Amino acid sequence: MTLPPAPLPPSTAEPELRARILAVAVELFADKGYGRTSMREVAQAAGCTKPALYYHFESKEQLFRATIERCLVGLEPILAQVDLVSGTVRDRLVVLARGVFERLRSDPAPMRLMLVMQNRPDQAQPDFDFARYHQENQALLHALFEEGVRTGEIRPDVDLEDAALALTGALHSRAFLALKGVPAPPDTPDRIVDLLFRGIAAGSPPPRG
User: Fold this and answer.
1) How far apart are CA 133 and CA 71, in angstroms?
2) Domain boundaries, the chain
3) Other C-beta atoms within 10 Å of 153: how many?
4) 41-73 CB burial, b ≥16 within 10 A, e <16
5) Could you give phi then psi for residue 102, rounded to 5 degrees?
6) What is the pTM of this model?
């Protein structure tokens, strides 16, 4: 008598299941928060059983951390694009800002989750080292601004840490408003970078075309 083959584990039977679970978890955590999202809801939204879900993620906390990591990895192509662009520091900062808003338009859930979990954290959500993520982004901007000082694009007396914080603060605030339904004009990224470079004092040079 020939025995039927043993059922394949979820990761082999459905190689895309883990990615599908993470995708729906992003939506649920962003919409409902950590505390009000259940593993049962995640399994239902992913179209799998709870045992299959727990095969990939042992707990909701582990799933949450993996979801945040997925969102961060999704931003890496935007940062990588900056290194591929030739031109001035301002040009590369515009590429960075445009990439953020394009990602916001094409795939808003990860951006919504990141902003909500940092700005309005659920009391039940596990700790996550968002500070490390911010420090890495600030280091990238700081390096770009240092290059701008060397090339003469940026005044040597500018506090580069303040400049990096001003840019990220403006981008995050405008992105948060866009997620709330306040439309962002197409030239928003360019205007934010121009404002940083020109300042707001009378006699500032006009924006670059």
Assistant:
1) 11
2) 67-198
3) 15
4) ebbebbebeeebbbbbbeebeebbbebbebbbe
5) -70, -40
6) 0.79
Copy the structure tokens of residue 42: 């995640």
Q: What is the DSSP letter of 36?
A: T
> Residues 81, 74: contact at Cβ < 8 Å?
no
Note the pLDDT of residue 206. 61
Is domain 67-198 classified as CATH 3.40.50.720? no
Q: Report d(CA 6, CA 13) in Å as an integer.
A: 11
CA dist., res. 72 & res. 27, Å (int): 15
Distance CA 179, CA 14 (A): 33
In whole angstroms, what is the distance from residue 181 CA to residue 201 CA? Answer: 31
Report whether pLDDT(8) > 50: no
The answer to whether 125 and 35 have CB atoms below 8 angstroms apart is yes
Average pLDDT over residues 168-181: 89
CB 26 within 8 A of CB 110: yes
Q: What tens digit of pLDDT does each residue of 147-157 get?
A: 999 999 999 99
